[in-house]
Each structure stands twice: as structure tokens, then as C-alpha cells.
Write a structure and sequence with these properties.
single chain; 205 residues; mainly alpha; 10 helices; 77% helix; 0% strand; elongated
């Protein structure tokens, strides 16, 4: 029978993500991490040479899980509205299912040292570019309103990331339901068709 017990490195990453989210990166010590995992501080250092390296790995693994899926959607055929919807559902569902790690990416990544920051920014910008690409395609095809693709992508991702702050696993809505709702709102917000309907409704008043 396969042993599904997380290895020590994974246990440290999970504990660190939770502590970084609740106490902040700067408010968490290696001693705190060791106590949370139930190992010695020297054992933590055996697996991770520094707290910086630990945060960098959490962020790397977090974005690495969803980036290939978003890339596949962005580069696929089909209407931009459908691709944007699918990409945002993927992003939001993943974020809500791994809130601690995503909070490290969105909130604590700013504390990375220059040694790790460069790689973080490159991958973050690459991820955001897939959303910009979908929006640019939608504008070119007349599906979306003329707009700044970069600002729009940042706004949509920011909206979805904010759900991590208030989502509760025992709440009324599943990650999938929240993700679909947010994606619906996002597509309607950038859609040229939605703007036409609003103009017609305003003219009828």
C-alpha cells in the first residue's frame, strides 16, 4: 500500500504557508516553524537553508501548479470570452483550495530578497501575460471593449485573489461555485456585448 503521509519537506512547507499567512513572513521565525511541525530547528535548516528559500519554494510550487493549465487555455482555439472564463475558473479554484500558499504568493512575495525576487517577478509576469493575451485577442475580435489589457488583467486577478481573504471551507459556496460566479462577472465586465445591452437598457429608461 502506498504511503500518502506528507514527507517532512511538505509538512514544513504547509506549516510555513499557514504561519506566513497568519503572522506574516517577517513575524514568523524558524523556531516557530519547527514547533509547528514538531521537529527541531536544525531539522528545518536541513531541508531549507533559509526562510527566504522556503518562501521562494512555496511560491514557485504554487504558481507552477496552475501556470501550465492557464497557458494551455490561453493558447487554445475558441472565443476569447470562453477562454477567459476557463482561465479565471482555474485560477480562482486553485487559489481557494490552497489559500495559505496563494497568500504567500500575493502578499508575502514582496519580502523576497533580490536573490529570489528576480525569478519570482519573471514567473509572475509570465502568468499575468496569459490573461492579457486572452483579453487582447478578445479586443481584436470585437468580443471585448477597447481597454488596457494589462490593467484589466490585474483587476480581474486582483478580484479573484481577494476571495482568498474571506473564503471559508465550511461556507455556503464551494470554490468551484465562487470561481464560476467571479468568471461570469469578469467576462460580462469586459464584454462588448454586455456594454451594448447596458446602453440599450439605459436608453429605454
Amino acid at each position: 500500500m502506498k504511503d500518502h503521509t506528507p514527507d517532512t519537506s511538505e509538512r514544513i512547507r504547509r506549516a510555513a504557508a499557514s504561519l506566513f499567512r497568519t503572522r506574516g513572513f517577517n513575524g514568523t521565525s524558524m523556531h516557530d516553524l519547527a514547533a509547528a511541525v514538531g521537529i527541531t530547528k536544525s531539522s528545518v535548516y536541513h531541508h531549507f537553508p533559509s526562510k527566504q528559500a522556503l518562501l521562494a519554494e512555496i511560491i514557485e510550487l504554487t504558481i507552477g501548479r496552475v501556470l501550465p493549465q492557464v497557458q494551455e487555455v490561453a493558447e487554445s482555439a475558441g472565443p476569447a470570452s470562453e477562454r477567459l472564463h476557463r482561465a479565471l475558473v482555474l485560477h480562482t479554484t486553485a487559489a481557494l483550495r490552497d489559500g495559505d500558499s496563494v497568500a504567500c504568493f500575493t502578499e508575502e512575495g514582496r519580502y523576497l530578497s533580490p536573490e529570489f525576487m528576480t525569478a519570482h517577478v519573471v514567473k509572475r509576469d509570465r502568468y499575468e501575460r496569459f490573461f492579457r493575451r486572452i483579453i487582447e485577442d478578445g479586443i481584436a475580435r470585437g468580443e471585448f471593449l477597447p481597454q488596457d489589457p494589462r490593467l484589466s488583467a490585474m483587476a480581474l486577478l486582483g478580484m479573484c485573489n481577494a476571495a482568498v481573504r474571506w473564503y471559508r471551507p465550511d461556507g455556503d459556496h464551494s470554490p468551484e461555485a465562487i470561481a464560476a460566479h467571479f468568471a461570469d462577472l469578469a467576462v460580462r465586465g469586459v464584454s462588448a456585448l454586455g456594454a451594448t445591452r447596458l446602453q440599450r437598457a439605459a436608453g429605454a429608461v
